[in-house]
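Thread title: Can someone regenerate the structure for this chain?

I was given the following input by a collaborator and told the matching structure tokens would be attached. They weren't. Posting the sequence so someone can regenerate them.
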Amino acid sequence: MPHPEQPSYEELAARNAELLAVVAEQAALIESLRAEVAALRRQAGRDSSNSSQPPSQDGPAAEAKAKARARSRRARPGRAQGGQKGHPGASLAWAARPDETLVIEPGTCGGCGADLAGADGRVASAVQVFDIPPAALTVTEYQMMRRTCCGCGHVTTAPAPAGVTGGPVCYGPNVTDAATLLASTDVIGIERAADLMGALLKAPVSTGFVSRCLVRLDAALTAAGFEDALKDALRAAGVLGTDETPAPLATAATSAEGCGNPHVYTVRTLRGWTGGGPDLIWYGAAGDRTKASITGFGILDGYHGVLVRDDYGGYLSYDAGLAGVQQCLAHLYRYLDDAYATGPQSQTWTRQAGDALRAASAAVRAARADRQASLDPALLDRLRHSYDQAVAFGISVNLSRPWHKGNHPGLILARRLKRKASQVWLFTTRFDVPATNNGSENAVRGYKLAAKISGCWRTLATLQRHCRIRSYLTTARSHGRHPLAAIRDALTGNAWMPPHPA
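Best answer:
Regenerated them for you:
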């Protein structure tokens, strides 16, 4: 018979059940809090190295991490600093016919001090100095003559030379070309361009003059139909890359309808990333980042080649009509790093998947350098098996792993990598397709610099004008046309036009 002060078995069992329920509730709470802490740490640790966040938004911690990675690379054993073995390098080449040859005499004898004029001698050494003459404006007065015909009496007046506009005093075509080139770059605004014209070239011009130069070039390109011709050539290319980046507008401009989220877009060929050759590079701007804006550019609709891109939803509807899609591996590496950071012990699959893709990319580069048309099938099968195995493990290990909101990021990524594996691995069977979209990212990087330097564009129209001019100068330069010559061509009614890809 139990002691009256001691609880009965039934009471102990009830208390034990209550305690077990409390423990289970606390365990669930702890697991939930762990997932929430992991999510917060993941969010705090996200930067341009492990997400699609632009580098301009990186904080001090991300910058410190980048410096640490740079130090680690410099300290990597077996890799010396500077150019690596086999790198072609670049240096000035000896000119067979210099513009001017000057003979430097020793003067007097270094032994006795006698005059050496007329003494026997030969060239001991020579050095060629490449330099530019001091900048200075030259003033040319053109006198347009008026002549009266002796036969019919008609009076004819000579026209002003090509490139000479305005008067009675105006700047010439060389000043116009230089000011236009400076102002059309991404890192020099109109005010700095005007300042450099005076400081560097001793041609003081106003910001209004520089602005008119840009307006003239844009009008010339529009009249020549350059942008339409460039879009036609892009649609005929077998492989294109596309990307976009935010482009700040003035507050007054963003308050207008349809300009709340302005972006600069690029569509370009990627021959420079798969074996060399001139590229076609188009830039455009829109007031938002929507499928409607992309469609409005009139390039990707009806395009049937291969598109290299990230996984932004605005491009997904084009997939059905394309010959293929290559997912940018640079983006995937960042996503894999992001998933790994949520739990290094449980997310080791991300390292295996990333290693397989990096090995495949290196193998393709080596095969392309050796002028091979394909990868060794056994090597490709082994790398693809390693990738598939890693992705399958990523799905299974994260299938029931708790997360504070929705599915675990590792599960979402692994399922996506499995679903779009053919888009991830296309570059291994098409050597004309690059593994990354770095070409497109590099193309829009200048606009991020421009935003840092100039702050913003006043209107969407001025941003679109800048895009047209950059499309012209960048593509012409890629095809070997000097920017100053390209500007002169356009302003004289003979704009350079892009050829259709072979």
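The chain has a mean pLDDT of 87.
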